[in-house]
Write a structure and sequence with these properties.
The complex is a heterodimer of chains A (115) and B (250). By secondary structure, chain A is an alpha+beta fold. In chain A, 24% of the residues lie in helices and 37% in strands. The radius of gyration of chain B is 18 Å and the shape is globular. Classes of the chains: A alpha+beta (115), B mainly alpha (250).
Chain lengths: 115, 250
């Protein structure tokens, strides 16, 4: 079965207004969502990325420049990723439909290329 | 993502711990810094949201939150010049609480009882309007968000937000350090908290405090502060959203 990477992005400004109850509810949903995928053998991996520090390297005018953080204009930051198994993009989307990350962020789904 | 052994999260655990932590940190930082206390606590909750989905729910979720909030408080102390003189005393107090904390919920609750009571007294300081007291109590010791408070009071979130800003500014400008418990105001605020934030239909007319506390247990806000003494208040000058809901037969 193909693997799909779920790239989780979030706008940290949203967090300030989430209530304690909402946060708890979302965490409980995450546990349920993750457990459901894992029990079916559909969760291949995942990791959380640390917040705050980041570097971006890019060649500009012939030299490699390293800057702190992602692009300044980016409102959404990369929070982490999951790798799930699915037959198709449609099925991957279905499996993400009740992912609680959608309550405050976006999920970019990309199929992992196997040569 | 780690599997299994997920300790079930007690209902409203986050809201309860948030209220306790804000009360505790407000006492340590001082009433002029309620904002900072709230920020530290919210950061701890958000960290849980960002980490637990990947790392799993810890064995002692409440303890984890308190621990993270404590570390964030220590960071805040070091970064803010305002605390320079009191830093040692505050650090010592944070350490004392850490050592006193056994992993069971009941003992944690007892540890923060006094702080919650003191926060409640602060919110009910007579310098603040009744609306301000209710909003501030719900936001701080209650652990509710601006949006939740606004919904319960049929008000705009911006109205509640402004009310909170003004109330905190008053506490700062008046230099209020501690408030004695104004028992009537506290009872009034408690009544409005239980009945205002409840999702029960407006029909109920019994406003006995015992039944209100019992109902609030199932509704979710159960402060671990001592029950106020049974006592008839002399008046209930309830503002308009509540005149519809309650007939103050006291």
């Amino acid at each position: 079965m193909p693997q799909y990477m779920l790239v989780l992005r979030e706008d940290p400004a949203q967090f300030a207004s989430l209530s304690a109850d909402e946060i708890q509810r979302i965490i409980q949903k995450y546990v349920a969502w993750g457990d459901s995928l894992r029990e079916r053998g559909l969760l291949a991996g995942g990791a959380k990325l640390t917040q705050g520090a980041a570097r971006t390297m890019r060649r500009e005018s012939g030299r490699v420049r390293t800057t702190d953080g992602p692009y300044a204009e980016a409102k959404e930051v990369l929070g982490g990723y999951f790798t799930i198994l699915a037959d198709s993009y449609d099925q991957a989307v279905e499996r993400c439909r009740d992912c609680p990350h959608l309550e405050f962020g976006s999920i970019e789904i990309r199929e992992v290329d196997h040569v | 993502m780690r599997s299994g052994q997920v300790s079930p999260l007690v209902e409203h655990l986050f809201r309860k711990r948030a209220g306790q932590m804000v009360a505790h940190l407000t006492r340590l930082f001082g009433p002029a810094h309620v904002d900072l206390a709230e920020e530290v606590v919210q950061d701890a909750l958000v960290k849980a949201l960002q980490q637990w989905p990947f790392h799993g729910v810890p064995a002692n979720p409440g303890g984890w939150l308190l621990s993270v909030a404590r570390n964030a408080a220590l960071d805040t102390l070091r970064r803010h010049g305002a605390f320079r003189q009191r830093e040692d005393a505050i650090v010592a107090e944070l350490e004392r609480t850490r050592q006193a904390m056994a992993p069971d919920d009941a003992s944690i609750d007892r540890l923060f009882e006094d702080d919650e009571l003191q926060m409640m007294a602060l919110c009910c300081d007579p310098a603040l309007s009744r609306d301000a007291s209710v909003a501030l109590a719900l936001k701080t010791v209650g652990g509710f968000s601006v949006a939740e408070i606004a919904r319960a009071f049929l008000a705009e979130p911006s109205t509640i937000a402004q009310r909170l800003v003004r109330a905190k500014r008053q506490l700062r400008q008046l230099g209020i350090q501690q408030s004695t418990i104004q028992i009537e105001r506290v009872l009034e605020v408690l009544y409005l908290m239980f009945n205002g934030v409840s999702r029960r239909p407006a029909a109920s007319r019994s406003c006995g405090r015992t039944s209100a506390r019992r109902r609030s247990g199932s509704r979710g806000w159960s402060p671990s502060i001592p029950r106020p003494p049974r006592r008839k208040p002399t008046r209930w000058p309830l503002s308009s959203p509540f005149r519809r809901h309650a007939s103050p037969r006291v």
